[in-house]
């Protein structure tokens, strides 16, 4: 007779890119002149990163990275979290490590010596808050399997993975190993698809993970749902994918979000805010609110509402790390 796994010490351990966001406002004409895809995310090499940085106006440096942003939101809400990601032994690496530890998140992966430098995302923010991201992955794409603490993964209720990090070969192998460790310990795996370009490159891998029952909670937006299923109609695509995943969560920007879990469907409207300042991290913080609801035993609709509240806070200011007390916001709005 199989016994239940012991109660975990951590709520969430996340694996993702360790990135510092460099953000600056920009007119759409400037974005076009630089040959950038407005509202998209493009991977850039060292030379292009330098060119774009030189073209930016006054910028703010804020620690980012999709999974790290989600964990920062979770930690602010009171969840106990740990992060696995790779920085270099340079100034931005020190900034990232300081910022994530300052939120109470465990982070003990040693810095990688020498080149390449710590990853950075150069973000041009349009007047309407839309962000155009250009990511130099640097050291983050060299996260080795040896950096995994399998005991830590086994001691966390959820393993949370970001699709962005699936692209480079070395961290992809590490993430597969982490999934096996979580599964072996009877823990749940949450996965965010991250971007349609990642699905274009690795959709077969993701569909295989889903078909093998390796993902318990899958996060996607409307475009990613269409890219993964090959179905443009939202309701048809949702109906196609939902039976294959224990919990499917799809965000729809200003139209809110939908979740299907155990055959039950819930949906929520986007939280109203006075002005959208910067959409960077909206999906990351939605995932934070939703997962916080899951680990605290909230109903499906409450998990969605928590996600919407957290996403609304993040798009009301620059940067993808919360500035308000998210726990107070949830108490105020959810009761």
Short structural description:
The chain is of the alpha/beta class and 335 residues long.
What features would you highlight for this structure?
335 residues; alpha/beta; UDP-N-acetylmuramoyl-L-alanine:D-glutamate ligase; 8-stranded mixed sheet; 5-stranded mixed sheet; 12 helices; globular
Structure notes:
- The protein is an alpha/beta fold and about 325 residues long.
- The protein has a single domain (about 10-15, about 65-115, about 140-335), classed as Ribokinase (UDP-N-acetylmuramoyl-L-alanine:D-glutamate ligase, 3-Layer(aba) Sandwich), CATH 3.40.1190.
- It has 12 helices and 13 strands.
- It has helices spanning about 30-35, 45-55, 65-75, 90-100, 150-155, 170-185, 195-210, 220-230, 235-240, 280-295, 300-315, 325-335; strands at about 10-15, 20-25, 40-45, 60-65, 80-85, 120-125, 130-135, 155-160, 190, 215-220, 245-250, 255-260, 265-270.
- It has an 8-stranded mixed β-sheet, sandwiched between helices. Strands 3-7-6-2-4 form a 5-stranded mixed β-sheet.
- Strand 11 (about 245-250) and strand 12 form a beta hairpin.
- The longest helix is centred in the middle third of the chain and has 16 residues, at about 170-185.
- The termini are far apart.
- About 50% of the residues are buried.
- The model has no long low-confidence stretch (mean pLDDT about 95).
């Amino acid at each position: 007779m199989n016994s239940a796994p012991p109660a975990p010490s951590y709520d969430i351990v996340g694996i993702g890119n360790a990135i510092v966001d460099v953000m600056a406002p920009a007119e759409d004409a400037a974005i076009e002149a630089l040959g950038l895809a407005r509202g998209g995310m493009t991977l850039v090499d060292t030379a292009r990163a330098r060119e774009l940085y030189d073209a930016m106006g006054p910028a703010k440096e804020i620690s980012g990275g999709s999974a790290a942003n989600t964990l920062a939101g979770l930690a602010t809400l009171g969840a106990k979290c740990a992060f696995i990601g790779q920085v270099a032994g340079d100034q931005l690496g020190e900034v990232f490590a300081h910022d994530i530890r300052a939120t109470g998140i465990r982070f003990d992966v040693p810095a990688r010596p020498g080149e390449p430098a710590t990853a950075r995302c150069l973000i041009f923010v349009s007047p309407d808050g839309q962000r155009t991201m250009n990511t130099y992955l640097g050291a983050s794409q060299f996260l080795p399997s040896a950096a995994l603490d399998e005991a830590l993964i086994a001691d966390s209720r959820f393993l949370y993975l970001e699709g962005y990090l699936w692209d480079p070969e070395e961290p992809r192998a590490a993430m597969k190993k982490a999934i096996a460790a979580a599964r072996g310990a009877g823990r749940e795996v949450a996965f965010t698809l991250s971007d349609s370009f990642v699905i274009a490159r690795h959709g077969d891998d993701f569909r295989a993970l889903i078909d093998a029952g390796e993902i318990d909670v899958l996060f996607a937006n409307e475009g990613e749902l269409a890219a993964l299923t090959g179905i443009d109609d939202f309701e048809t695509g949702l109906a196609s994918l939902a039976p294959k995943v224990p919990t499917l969560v799809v965000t729809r920007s200003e139209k809110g979000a939908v979740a299907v879990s155990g055959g039950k469907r819930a949906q929520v409207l986007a939280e109203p805010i006075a002005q959208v300042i910067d959409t960077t991290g909206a999906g990351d913080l939605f995932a934070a609110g939703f997962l916080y609801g899951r680990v605290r035993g909230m109903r499906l609709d409450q998990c969605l509402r928590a996600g919407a509240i957290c996403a609304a806070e993040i798009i009301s200011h620059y940067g993808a790390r919360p500035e308000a007390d998210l726990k107070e916001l949830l108490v105020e709005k959810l009761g």
